[in-house]
Amino acid sequence: MTAATDVLAPSTLRRGASRTGAKIALDMAFSVVLFVGTIVGVIALATLIWTILDNGWARLIADPAVFLTSYVSRFPARAGIKAALVGSAYLMVLTALFCFPIGVGAAVYLEEFAPRNRVTNFVEANVANLAGVPSVVYGLLGLGIFVRFLQMGPSLLAGALTLAVMSLPVIIVAAREAIRAVPQSIRLGAYALGATKWQTVRRQVLPAAMPGTLTGTILALSRAIGETAPLLVIGLPIVIFSIPNDLRDPVSALPLLIFDWTSRPQPAFAEAAAAASVVLLALLLAMNAVAIFLRNRYTIRW
Asked: What averages of pLDDT result for each successive group of 10 residues across the chain (302 residues)?
């Protein structure tokens, strides 16, 4: 009996001892494939960024004030990105106003209040699947509902609502993960002091989950600011010579302007498109830097 116990002791059972040589070789091959895929992706991204900087940096620093404050022109040397830059800012602000409260509210309900049944499971599965739907599908949705059915036309409001619908699943998933990460002891402590469920969620759970929620929201908006397909599908103008003064006014965006300039045959417009891409990359890096700061500064280590 003692000999059998010694054989089965944890110290004598090495981790992975039952793995065959074929499984070990398969694991190593899979690891190599993943590593090579990662390296290829990093090299492709670095090449793309270098190409954009090489083609557009000279155009941008030649006269950045004129480039950032001028409207589009048929002369490449006079073309600027003012309308598209301001339009992108308007779209992001409205998108955040639409999708953030709805996304956080949906996450709170699904995580804290919704009963565990088939309907809830169906909704949760569909929210997770919608986070991976291609953006052009959301463009078709915006075209059918906001532009045509609600008769908003290709306006600032229609574009913001389309981007909000696209960003909503990502925000819901991120907010749910942040709420789920709050320890159950925080809730039980609030209940022990006499707090109701809503008071516990509003005063304890949501503040603790807000850093992760804000990080997911900013990352979702950083994806939305670079999208071209949904804005093209709903019919937003590519070239515009004014800044919208009303939610029903047409609006352009940086991705649309870059798409237009790259389709023109003049090399100077390609340089202008690369310079606009540098500005867009700077905006994306700034938004991701804010997300990283919020995560590192305010995340609570339980």
From this structure: 49 54 86 93 91 87 86 84 90 93 93 88 88 88 92 90 93 92 90 90 90 88 88 84 86 89 87 90 88 77 67
**Tokens found for residue 264:** 């023109």
Domain count, the chain: 1
List the domain range (segments joined by +) for residue 121. 67-298
Dihedral class, residue 89 (left if φ above 0, else alpha if ψ from -120 to 50, else beta): alpha
Residue carrying structure tokens 């509902």: 145
CATH label of the domain that carries residue 244: 1.10.3720.10
Q: What is the 3-state secondary structure (H, E, C) of the chain?
A: CHHHHHHCCHHHCCCCCCCCHHHHHHHHHHHHHHHHHHHHHHHHHHHHHHHHHHHHHHHHHHCHHHHHHCCCCCCHHHCCCHHHHHHHHHHHHHHHHHHHHHHHHHHHHHHHHCCCCHHHHHHHHHHHHHCCCCHHHHHHHHHHHHHHHCCCCCCHHHHHHHHHHHHHHHHHHHHHHHHHCCCHHHHHHHHHCCCCHHHHHHHHHHHHHHHHHHHHHHHHHHHHCCCCHHHHHCCCCCCCCCCCCCCCCCCCCHHHHHHHHHCCCCHHHHHHHHHHHHHHHHHHHHHHHHHHHHHHHHCCCC
Residue 6 resides in a domain: no
Q: Are 234 and 142 in contact (CB under 8 A)?
A: yes
Does residue 128 form part of some domain? Answer: yes
Tell me, yes or no, whether 260 lies in a domain.
Answer: yes
How many residues comprise the chain? 302
Q: State the chain's maximal CA–CA distance in angstroms.
A: 91
Q: Which residue has the tokens 């389309």?
A: 162
- Residue 268: its pLDDT value, please? 87
Residue indicated by tokens 């159950």: 184
Q: Does residue 32 lie within any of the structural domains? A: no
